[in-house]
Design goal:
This protein is of the alpha+beta class. It contains ten helices and six strands.
Length: about 375
């Protein structure tokens, strides 16, 4: 299996990111090689941090606990302040997980900003000269490779992470554990209801919460958690609890009281029912549009990638670190072999006459023909 051929014939790349990903030579080389051979974007390079699994579980646990507590308090007719207390504690736990992830993102940006391939770790020292030779074939010099990683990989990672940790459908899944089940309960009881207007209003209200309110709350909370990352100790605790109270418990509590009031009025008031119907229609339309946009964006990107990958793989790299050439020149990379004569890479690169662009046509394997014509991916 040849890594270069595998990457050249891949439409997408999925990166399971941890804090050591940008410190290992092989992982940095594979993502940079993909970046040089492909037109990387948020659609064909997916960066999934492993720590997001814990964040997702924490969010679902918080959502589910809040929903179960709310139902229990309604049945037992206890003080709703208990629901606020549990919401605050659960929110503090979730914000702690979000803060940890925000610090990891900041550390990632700092590592990319000062990236140096010579400082990367390699478990087998014998692999180091193989990777260095392949990098030299791709971009002629290790310093140029460092600059490409700093200039091009950093914005790609930043765009892949974005402001929000999860996709929109993840937030729907999180909110469903709290309010989506309530919407299903109201829908299920409709055929047996003595007050269908009330239960229709309830189904639409909790659908509105699932599709709009909770995604907005969780997104706003993540944006707020990206500030004041230097806090530690009691300052960090106060900031997390204060964010939970100020952004989740109080506003969500007030809005919940308002929507429940509308739901009760909908049984007798046409105006209240019409307002709830409008909220439900807007929420469902928004969700369909958002999911459709994501799906169409990914489809368009895949279609564009297939059209571009019909022939040779061409990647334009811009950066001030590339050499200024008065005349167009061609670098022919000889067959680069390791000690076992198993890893060969042949490379043809041409520099245009103007500064700052590098056109690369990569041929991987034992043949000097372009990838699109003869070379095959063995993986």
């Amino acid at each position: 299996m040849k890594l270069g051929a595998f990457l050249a014939h891949s439409d997408e790349m999925l990166i399971l990111y941890t804090n050591v990903y940008l410190q290992k030579l092989w992982t940095v080389y594979e993502v940079a090689a993909f970046l040089l051979q492909q037109s990387a974007s948020a659609y064909n390079m997916k960066v999934v941090p492993v720590s997001l699994v814990g964040m997702l579980l924490a969010a679902v646990w918080w959502s589910y606990l809040q929903g179960v507590t709310g139902i229990f308090l309604l049945i037992s007719e206890l003080n709703l302040a208990w629901s606020g207390l549990i919401g605050t504690l659960g929110g503090a736990c979730y914000t702690a997980a979000v803060r940890t992830w925000q610090r990891d993102k900041l550390l990632m940006q700092e590592r990319l900003l000062s990236f140096a391939v010579r400082e990367c770790r390699c478990t087998v020292d014998g692999d180091r000269h193989i990777i260095y030779s392949n990098i030299a074939a791709l971009v002629q010099a290790l310093d140029v490779f460092d600059q490409i990683v700093r200039d091009e990989l950093r914005p790609v990672f930043k765009a892949a992470f974005g402001w929000c940790s999860f996709e929109y459908y993840h937030y729907i899944f999180i909110g469903f554990a709290m309010t989506g089940t309530l919407a299903l309960d109201y829908i299920a009881i409709l055929p047996f209801s003595d007050s269908p207007r009330f239960h229709v209003a309830g189904a639409l209200i909790w659908t509105h919460w699932t599709l709009i309110v909770w995604p907005v709350i969780f997104t706003s909370l993540e944006i707020l958690m990206s500030f004041k990352l230097s806090y530690t100790g009691w300052k960090e605790l106060l900031f997390s609890v204060g964010a939970s109270l100020g952004l989740v418990v109080f506003p969500a509590g007030v809005y919940e009281w308002l929507t429940l009031y509308l739901m009760e009025k909908a049984a007798d008031s046409n105006a209240a029912l019409a307002l709830i119907l409008a909220l439900g229609i807007i929420s469902i339309t928004w969700a369909i549009a958002a999911l459709y946009k994501d799906a169409c964006g990914a489809t368009r990107e895949r279609r564009r990638r297939r059209q571009l990958s019909g022939g040779n793989v061409v990647k334009k790299v811009t950066g001030s670190a590339l050499p200024d050439e008065e005349k167009c020149s061609t670098l022919q990379g000889e067959g680069l072999e390791d000690e076992n004569q198993t890893n060969k890479v042949e490379m043809t690169s041409s520099w245009p006459c103007h500064r700052g662009q590098l056109d690369c046509e990569t041929a991987v394997g034992g043949s000097s023909a372009p990838i699109g014509e003869e070379a095959e991916a063995t993986g």
